[in-house]
Amino acid sequence: MHTADSWYLTVVRTQGLLFIRPAKSWRPVVSVGVVDPHQTYEVALGSDGQNPNLQKPFVLRDVDHSSQLDIQVWHKPSSKNRKKRHLVGSAYVSLGEVIRRQQQPGSDLDLHLNCPPPQKRSPTIKANHQRRTILTIRVYPPSSALSTGITSSGSLEDEDERLSETSSESPSETLVTPTVDGHEDTWPQEAEQTACADGHQLRRRRRRIKGYSLDSEAEDGNSSSSDSHISQHANYPPTPEPYEYSHVGFDEVESPQCTASSLGTPTPLPRYAERAVEDVTLSFAEAVVDSFAPYRELRHAELEADFDKVLGRLLTEWYVVGASLLAIAGIDAAIFGLAPGSILPVDGIAQHIVAIGAVAAGLGIAIISWFLVLYSSANAVKFQRLARDVYGSYFFFCLTCRLPTLCMFLSALALTLFLLIVAWSAAPSAVLVLSFLAGVLVSLQYLVFGCHRAFNFVIWACRGAWRVLGAGRGSAAAADSSRPPRRPHAQPHEERPVEISELRVDEPRADERIPEKAHFPR
């Protein structure tokens, strides 16, 4: 039943919603809710965003200009098994603002929706990122509300004229409200009511915007310059921030830390402190046990997750080893069942080897069964309690936890030796060749390493010998060069008598001659 004071609201169409959801075609559902009194209306639009029921508007009862509208656009999956709806856009506006922004009653009004980032990434979406989603509505107010709206709009115009006159006299006290996209954006500024000279008419005075300064002494000096700067640029609308999309989907659940960081609020620090593990020196026996068992891990484990990790690894090993031991035990039992005159002769050393393998397999199966009874259904706390020995350590547990694996190795080795002995009696050359190839392939890295080291040793020995020989030759050559040259030896000749004519007497020098007449003192 419609009354004279009812308001009528019609959802006309939506724009820009096709890029929000990844589906190719879907029908948006628009819900309009009145906050006070509580009323909810819904309409399903077409896949193109148009409303096929324009002749059936929403009837809003008991509302006025101050009533708030909560408009939400939902995406409903087309599949029948999914009934959950996803919010793709919302707007919050009052009826008074809608009437003020409409050019005339019943005209189309575009409302910009606050939408989450798109889930579909493609060049088409990238080109339409800057286009914001719009919801077009029509509001038909009653005649009484329309007259009230005209009166209120006239008073607002008179108030704006008074504010403009005041701003011309003192530009630093008032600011002009900028208009963006053809409508006014209300700024969250605090208004003060001051009385005029007559005491009856009230004038709204906007709060002066004052800059913030780190230096308290320079605050007064900077305020005047900031006011003058604001007054110069007050008539220019602020540059709208670009509408950016994120690659994160709207349905993805964000963690509290991510949500807090996106909203600009401080996030708590992670409660994590790196735990320093002391490297305790192990004794010789403990080091030997730690070489084949998780002794160090159990000794340094403090959290339940550490014990769960060790227990899970041991349980997996026990299950695998148990299955292998069962298979080897079955083979040994089949070998014992062979008749004495069969193709495979089981006597002498082969029989003893098979017996050793069967004993090892049986012991391994028994130990694994006991371990599975104790630890298969244990949690971290129970495992920690059962693994401790009477001395409060994990030494004896680590000494026995790998015993089933050792039993499997012994039984497998015994079975291998038995097969080689039996095959040796039939084809010894094949056993030698295949065993040699298998041994070479298994120990290939050690053979290559040994050959490499031997080759390096030979090169080192050759270089050392060359240096020694070169040093000996160099010292001998240096010794020969330091010695004086040797005279050639005279040839042996026969002695013969010397003739007087061959003798030559050297004449004395002038200073050695004796004067002819020398006077000697008496």
TrEMBL record:
Residues 138-246, 476-522 are annotated as: Disordered. This is C2 domain-containing protein. Signal peptide: none annotated. Residues 491-522 have a biased composition (Basic and acidic residues). Residues 165-179, 221-235 have a biased composition (Low complexity). Residues 144-155 have a biased composition (Polar residues). The chain crosses the membrane at residues 318-343, 349-373, 394-424, 430-449. PROSITE patterns: C2. InterPro entries: C2_dom. It comes from Postia placenta MAD-698-R-SB12. Residues 1-108 form the C2 domain. Keywords: Membrane, Transmembrane, Transmembrane helix.
